[in-house]
Amino acid sequence: MLSMDDKRLQNLERVLFCLVVIGIGAAEHPRTTNSRAPSAQDARESSVHIRFVREFSSPGDVRGERFPIFDRSLDIVAGPADPHLANDKLVAPYSVATDSTHRILVADPGAGVVHIFDFEKSKYSVLRSRDTRLRLPAGIATDGDDNVYVTDTSLGVVSVYDSKGKFLRYLGKVQGGESYFQAPVGIAIHAATGHIYVCDSPRHMIVMLDKKDHVLGHFGRRLGGNGPGDFRYPSRIVIAGDEIFVLDSGNSRLQVLDPGGHFRREIRLPEVSASDGLALDDEKNIYLSDGQLNVISVLNRDGQFLYKFGLSGAKPGEFNVPSGLWIESESLYVADSKNHRVQVFQIEKQR
């Protein structure tokens, strides 16, 4: 017989899996906006701005044609994973990020791991530790020392690893082993201050912490709202200069805050879900993935539409529920969730 706590945990994990992998209502309810499916004309126009580079989904893509021998460098440091968690192929990638060495880190709640692809050294590894395990890794970020921060919506914590994959600590643990967070999802780190911003989606809040796990502030109301600085299911967060961009999924908008969490402005959006991704380039153009229409829309910093690209499908440049986005220099990384891969595009700047 399961105890009440065990049943509650099982129910919570089911809810959170839907929140992270599918998005709030995205699979069951079609969009109610006037957005149209992309046309051939859209594809021709977007080709001026975006060029497909490559895709990857497994260790074989890092090591080329040779059959991959699993890179155990992180396992030696961090300890072997439980057998049922070992999965070296992307299952349902949700978030993607890079570090200063250009390694690509992919949070995969479907596999319960973080994949690390190092194309420069032709290595692949999986992030995990001996004494802990990831259940539903959702958001991912790195700091100036290439420490890796992973939000886990099931454990209700942020797991921190060093650059070699050694588990360092949890953020969000309080007395008695409980968590400060309910279900952390998106995460970003302010380079200048080192402050960590976490979307605690079911609580409708953004939480700001320092690296010693001190809570410095929280923004939003516990029951949610639609006023300036209020949130409903905030899901993604990106820091660009001195501005913090939050995808306020339940309110179908993007809110822009200062580093102290004070409201600056908002950008209204078509209907969005929690699985949709967010990224900004160095000109603060805004990239938004749409898992229903299987497109990525690009807006300028003021929210004016520039162009969109993508079609439904599995060919290069096509998507099946594009989710997390990441931009490094002029490279755009897309977690193509239901195609079980990450696609990489070159952003062609207009001179």
Which labels suit this protein?
single chain; 351 residues; mainly beta; Neuraminidase; four-stranded antiparallel β-sheet; 11% helix
Shape: globular
Q: Main β-sheet: number of strands, strand sense, barrel status?
A: 4 strands, antiparallel
CATH architecture: 6 Propeller
What is the structural class?
Answer: mainly beta
- CATH topology value: Neuraminidase
- Please compute the radius of gyration using only Cα atoms: 19 Å
Element layout with pairings:
Layout: H1 4-22, H2 40-46, E1 50-56, H3 59-63, H4 73-78, E2 95-98, E3 104-108, E4 113-118, E5 123-127, E6 137-142, E7 148-152, E8 157-161, E9 167-171, E10 184-189, E11 196-200, E12 205-209, E13 215-219, E14 234-240, E15 243-248, E16 253-257, E17 263-268, E18 278-280, E19 286-290, E20 295-299, E21 305-309, E22 311-312, E23 318-319, E24 322-328, E25 331-336, E26 341-347
Parallel strand pairs: 22-23
Antiparallel strand pairs: 1-26, 2-3, 3-4, 4-5, 6-7, 7-8, 8-9, 10-11, 11-12, 12-13, 14-15, 15-16, 16-17, 18-19, 19-20, 20-21, 24-25, 25-26
Task: Describe this structure as you would to a colleague.
With 351 residues, the protein is mostly beta strands. The protein has one domain (4-347): Neuraminidase (6 Propeller), CATH 2.120.10. The protein is 11% helix and 38% strand. It is built from four helices and 26 strands. It has a four-stranded antiparallel β-sheet with strand order 1-26-25-24. Strands 2-3-4-5 form a four-stranded antiparallel β-sheet. The radius of gyration is 19 Å and the shape is globular. The chain starts with a helix and ends with a strand. Residues 2-17, 21-36 and 65-85 have low confidence and may be disordered.
